[in-house]
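Design request, tokens follow.
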């Protein structure tokens, strides 16, 4: 059976069966009736055929007990008519006697049995009872099958039908049939209007349709269904006529309505509507009935969800089609107006609204870019300020704005609000057009009816806004790209001329023409600074005759060009004549005569020199954008390059001639220097910081016993190692040579070459590059063999003499001390004291000579150990504290607490510090300043003492550390002295692989410095 063919009449539930007995014999009929009634069935007795047919139609019995002989009609005819009923009853025939004819009649009627009089009442009752039971079971099975068929047909209809109204009506029809209800409504939520609407109904006769239509829409919480919707749970209510929630009492009384079952239609946590089922008089609902109601409610929920999904899919499809069509139009980006018009028209159509429009941001104002015909009456103001009206608020906030009813909106401009209401518009939605996260416009839509906008409405309009923003940005980028392409082409042309032409006039002509064309101006000119006239004069021009402006002279700081020349930054004006009127009247008159109103100027600067100014002119008062200022500055830079190239070309030609002359002189000088280099008696070589020999003269090779050319590119230390090894030396190179390249201070010393029977004195001086960085060392070698032999003889003689003097001097000192302790006259005692001091000085001199002799001969016993130079310095200062106080000096020490440790003999190192400190004290006038600084430099420790004393003449500094040498100016301060102290300092410092030197200027004090390695010391006494 199809769903539309379901019967409207519900099945009647009975406790027992219904039996109709048709028999004119009252006694027989009563006996059978009693037996059947005793079994719990309802029995109706009819003596005639007419009464029997009426009972059969009214009662729809399960079993018909029919006598064949009736007074008013043949029993066979009654049986045939009963068989025409929708549900024909089981038939049991009653015959007067058993005959073959009766059996044939029973077969013809498909009778369930035949009773023959006299009837056995108990057997007859049992037969009829079994027939009723079988009939009831078959009827229940048919009802169950019919319910399954109905639910199946309903499910098929829900999954296949696209007409939601038809599905809801069918569902209501099925509910009336399956539950025996009088009336079924399917209420569906309308969230925008906050009401429930009837979407399906079944069960009432047409006469009740008019009172029913009065309640097809109800607010949330109103009536039976509204209460169930608000409660969100099933409700079962009896006696609805007296319930205050039942609104249509006239309908309830007329239709005999009594019970109500309401089931909310749920989808997750969302209530979609209500399935309302109304019954006549009845008892409580069974579990099975409630389960069937819930199943029908689930069908309705699924129908709503499916309809919403289908409607949403249709909306999405339509929206996507429109968005796709708009996106395709973006391909023709130059037709941006067409894209924007398509956006506003489709946005209004898809949202079901009447008007739409777009405003774009230009500077600080919003201007109309596109609008529908209906929006023309709403968007009447050509421009809006940011924050003004609804559109201005959207752009200012960068967020969508929803106004459900403009009549309730109080922030909008009252004039525009009244205009919208006068035209009948109430709803408004605006979303920003964003480019790169910045709002550049707004897309507005208006509706005549007040409404709330769902999130998908906002999302759809935002998608249209994105399309409009893309169109706007693509159009802008396209225009900018074309403009940049044009600018790049012209700039490339200028650059090519700069690279290929050194003719300044041609390049400047091209630059003025390019400036005029690229900035879309009417004229351009290059104003050159004329030093002889101290002002700017027109040099090249495009778009105006140069003769018209040749007489104009613009002083620096006056007029537009004069200010640009002075300030060296671009300037522009849209009132050129007025700006020139006060300080450049000639220029003002000329600008007026030529009709020039706006001007932009950029300086032409080459290095620190300002060549002039590049100016573009317009005949209309107009502003210049930042891009135009940048472009003109670029062209001005090109002009500066052209000027610089022209100047460089001229200077290059002059320099080429000069270089040719200098090259010839240099070549001559090089040859002369080469001859001098080779003719000197000293060996000279240049060694890189890494120790590689890069240059050497012939004498260097001769002194070292090798070919000078063969030394180039080799390692100096390897070469010297080889020379020392050839002599059979076990100790190798002196420490001062081995550590020569670990620092950049240079040094000096002796190198013995026994195989060649000579001693070379070497001096290494750092050689700097042009920037001051040390490039390497220049080393000179001198043959000092004869000098060292003489020195050795002197040393031997001094050693002999001092050894011979020491014993008698000790005796003289002892005898003088005895005399001083004896009682002698006062005048004799002063002579003895003077003699004691003289002997003491003589003994110290002898001791110094002995130490020098031992150091020179390598016989002084040295005990190297880790020595704290800071502590040692503090100890020396304590020793000389009395001398410092006597001279009233101020002594400062820096770096003593963090001084690096050195490996040295502390007694000898103490002698070095004591000698240098004593010299500073002695040769500094009273109340002088002495500063001692200690610190690390790489892998060496640096100790220096600076005074503000008499200083050392420059010519004396070269011999300062020689034996017995004293500078001439020291005699004015200290007449006593041997000239051995600094010589001894040098010997000790060099003994530990260090170096000592002095920086001084006569009359301005002196600074003595020595450096020592912080580790890795080796005994060099044998060298």
């Amino acid at each position: 059976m199809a769903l539309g063919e379901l019967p409207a009449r519900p099945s009647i539930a009975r406790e027992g069966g219904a039996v109709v007995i048709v028999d004119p014999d009252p006694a027989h009929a009563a006996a059978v009736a009693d037996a059947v009634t005793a079994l719990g069935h309802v029995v109706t007795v009819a003596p005639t055929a007419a009464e029997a047919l009426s009972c059969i139609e009214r009662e729809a019995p399960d079993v018909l007990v029919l006598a064949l002989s009736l007074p008013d009609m043949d029993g066979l005819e009654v049986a045939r008519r009963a068989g025409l009923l929708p549900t024909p009853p089981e038939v049991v025939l009653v015959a007067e006697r058993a005959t073959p004819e009766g059996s044939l009649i029973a077969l013809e009627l498909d009778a369930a049995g035949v009773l023959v009089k006299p009837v056995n009442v108990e057997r007859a009752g049992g037969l009829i009872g079994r027939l009723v039971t079988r009939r009831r079971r078959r009827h229940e099975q048919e009802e169950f099958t019919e319910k399954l068929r109905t639910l199946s047909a309903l499910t098929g209809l829900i999954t296949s039908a696209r007409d939601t109204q038809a599905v809801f009506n069918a569902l209501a029809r099925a509910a009336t049939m399956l539950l025996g209800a009088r009336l079924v409504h399917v209420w569906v939520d309308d969230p925008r209007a906050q009401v429930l609407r009837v979407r399906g109904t079944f069960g009432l006769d047409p006469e009740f349709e008019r009172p029913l239509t009065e309640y097809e829409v109800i607010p949330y919480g109103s009536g039976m269904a509204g209460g169930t919707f608000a409660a969100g749970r099933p409700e079962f209510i009896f006696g609805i006529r007296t319930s205050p929630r039942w609104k249509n009492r006239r309908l309830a009384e007329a239709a005999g309505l009594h019970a109500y079952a309401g089931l909310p239609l749920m989808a997750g946590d969302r209530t979609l509507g209500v399935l309302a089922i109304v019954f006549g008089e009845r008892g409580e609902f069974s579990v099975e009935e409630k389960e069937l109601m819930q199943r029908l409610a689930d069908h309705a929920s699924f129908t709503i969800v499916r309809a919403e999904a289908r409607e949403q899919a249709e909306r999405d499809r339509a929206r996507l089609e429109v968005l796709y069509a708009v996106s395709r139009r973006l391909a023709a980006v130059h037709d941006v107006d067409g894209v924007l018009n398509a956006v506003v028209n489709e946005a209004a159509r898809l949202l079901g609204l009447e008007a739409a429009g777009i405003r774009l941001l230009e500077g600080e104002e919003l201007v109309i870019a596109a609008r529908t015909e209906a929006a023309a009456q709403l968007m009447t103001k050509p421009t809006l300020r940011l924050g003004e009206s609804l559109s201005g608020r959207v752009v200012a906030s960068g967020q969508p704005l929803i106004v459900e009813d403009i009549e309730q909106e109080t922030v909008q401009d009252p004039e525009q609000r009244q205009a919208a209401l006068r035209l009948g518009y109430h709803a408004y939605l605006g979303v920003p057009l964003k480019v790169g996260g910045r709002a550049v416009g707004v897309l507005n839509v208006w509706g005549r009816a007040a409404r709330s906008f769902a999130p998908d409405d906002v999302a759809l309009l935002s998608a249209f806004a994105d399309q409009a923003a893309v169109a706007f940005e693509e159009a802008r980028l396209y225009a900018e790209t074309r403009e940049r392409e044009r600018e790049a082409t012209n700039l490339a042309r200028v650059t090519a001329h700069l690279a290929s032409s050194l003719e300044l006039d041609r390049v400047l002509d091209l630059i003025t023409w390019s400036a005029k064309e690229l900035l879309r101006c009417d004229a351009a000119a290059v104003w050159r600074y004329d030093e002889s006239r101290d002002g700017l004069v027109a040099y090249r021009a495009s778009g105006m005759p140069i003769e018209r402006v040749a007489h104009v002279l613009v002083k620096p700081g006056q007029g537009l060009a004069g200010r640009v020349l002075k300030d060296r930054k671009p300037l522009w004006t849209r009132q050129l004549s007025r700006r020139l009127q006060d300080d450049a009247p000639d220029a003002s008159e000329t600008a007026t005569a030529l009709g020039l109103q706006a001007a932009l100027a950029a300086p032409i600067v080459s290095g620190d020199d300002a060549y002039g100014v590049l100016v573009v002119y317009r005949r209309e008062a107009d502003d210049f954008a930042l891009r135009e200022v940048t472009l003109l500055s670029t062209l001005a830079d090109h002009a500066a390059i052209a000027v610089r190239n022209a100047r460089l070309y001229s200077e290059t030609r002059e320099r080429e001639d000069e270089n040719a002359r200098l090259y010839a002189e240099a070549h001559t000088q090089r040859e002369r220097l080469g001859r001098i280099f080779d003719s000197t008696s000293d060996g000279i070589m240049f060694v890189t910081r890494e120790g590689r020999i890069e240059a050497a003269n012939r004498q260097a090779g001769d002194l070292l016993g090798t070919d000078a050319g063969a030394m180039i590119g080799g390692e100096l230390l390897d070469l010297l190692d080889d020379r020392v090894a050839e002599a059979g030396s076990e100790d190798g190179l002196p420490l001062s040579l081995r550590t020569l390249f670990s620092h950049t201070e240079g040094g000096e010393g002796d190198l013995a070459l026994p195989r060649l029977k000579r001693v070379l004195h070497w001096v290494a001086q750092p050689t700097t590059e042009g920037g001051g960085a040390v490039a390497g060392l220049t080393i000179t070698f001198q043959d000092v063999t004869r000098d060292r032999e003489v020195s050795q003889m002197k040393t031997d003689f001094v050693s002999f003499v001092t050894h011979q003097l020491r014993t008698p001097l000790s005796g003289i000192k002892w005898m003088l001390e005895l005399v001083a302790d004896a009682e002698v006259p006062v005048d004799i005692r002063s002579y003895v004291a003077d003699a004691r001091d003289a002997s003491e000085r003589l003994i110290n001199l002898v001791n110094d000579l002995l130490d020098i002799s031992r150091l020179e001969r390598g016989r002084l016993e040295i005990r190297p150990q880790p020595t704290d130079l800071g502590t040692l310095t503090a100890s020396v200062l304590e020793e000389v504290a009395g001398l410092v106080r006597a001279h009233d000096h101020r002594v400062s020490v820096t770096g003593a607490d963090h001084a690096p440790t050195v490996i040295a003999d502390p007694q000898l190192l103490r002698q070095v510090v004591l000698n240098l400190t004593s010299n500073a004290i002695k040769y500094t006038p009273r109340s002088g300043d002495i500063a001692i600084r200690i610190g690390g430099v790489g892998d060496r420790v640096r100790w220096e003492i600076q005074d503000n004393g008499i200083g050392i003449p420059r010519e004396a500094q070269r011999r300062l550390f020689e034996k017995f040498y004293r500078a001439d100016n020291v005699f004015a301060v200290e007449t006593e002295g041997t000239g051995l102290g600094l010589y001894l300092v040098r010997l000790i410092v060099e003994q530990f692989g260090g170096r000592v030197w002095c920086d001084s200027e006569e009359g301005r004090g002196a600074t003595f410095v020595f450096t020592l390695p912080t580790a890795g010391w080796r005994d060099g006494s044998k060298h």
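Comment from the thread starter after seeing the answer: thanks! The chain has a mean pLDDT of 79.
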